[in-house]
């Protein structure tokens, strides 16, 4: 055990955040799975708890092994991963498991394990964009040589995700734009990207309207209309009403662990609305701790970005933290009725398999960069990282965010 602890490096604060969120996940999931257990497992809540514990333990192992890998290897993995994720997303759209009129999952035969291909695509895309930004810093202001090779892959992935999962596609595009802004992509190019994104969304709605193949489009329209047009509580969607009741009942300190009443009324209280359950049971104090945990993750990743002497590692750590924190904030905003209803989970807290695995892999990569930053900056550490893309960050990107 001592040998394992000695080999556990990287930012200790990020490790602490991971442990904290994992403990919160066990408490919140166990408290909110009563209705699910009775529907599927004859009331056996312990089985789901053990399953979540196994998934989180596997996630911690993934973080450990991922952080021990030289992060420059992920630059090479990004190229292969991007090539593979395109047909994988296409296959998901055409032949994926359909749940609630959305083809987001692929089922692996024999073991019957399902996973969301968008989770893989998000991880691979940020590695790929980080690689391209670092390699093209000298021509980043050139539209053809610098901007297009970065933005075309982003557009392809977002368009393949959007028909089944619009919220994920929009958040992924926004996170990539933010990373590109930090990577010195001219604002006029980012503005053109934003206009193109709005045009594509409108085009998707128009195609669905004229062809009659609406798919998820009508669901999006209904959610947006109900969000903007609800005049009073009775006009809100059912899940929004129950989430508001849960939050109001939580008060400052909450009702206490396991005392939530909304968990029996909310759809998917263990995933899409787990933040509402946390607020009801632990109050605004618990909600604030969760919010601060994600902000601390972001701040520590910014610290890694500022200290990393090479562009790829800096962009990689910051980009992956962006996608996790933005998803967390979007989940919280939906739960407190600041955004229209979406199916976003709370990273590392909501019950899940593939989402926890790929979130853990992203955190492991961030810690891998952090480990190498520590080795470079500490006396007696290595002076260079073998295989690093030779663009010094200090000459290429701003020192502060």
TrEMBL record:
Presence of keyword Ion transport: no
Spans traversing the lipid bilayer: 13-36, 48-67, 73-96, 150-182, 189-208, 273-298, 310-334, 346-369
One biological process term in Gene Ontology: regulation of cell shape
Key words, A-Z: Cell cycle, Cell division, Cell shape, Glycosyltransferase, Membrane, Peptidoglycan synthesis, Transferase, Transmembrane, Transmembrane helix
A GO cellular component entry from the record: cell division site
Family: Belongs to the SEDS family. FtsW subfamily.
PANTHER family xref list: CELL CYCLE PROTEIN (PTHR30474), PEPTIDOGLYCAN GLYCOSYLTRANSFERASE FTSW-RELATED (PTHR30474:SF2)
Protein name: Probable peptidoglycan glycosyltransferase FtsW
Organism: Chitinophaga caeni
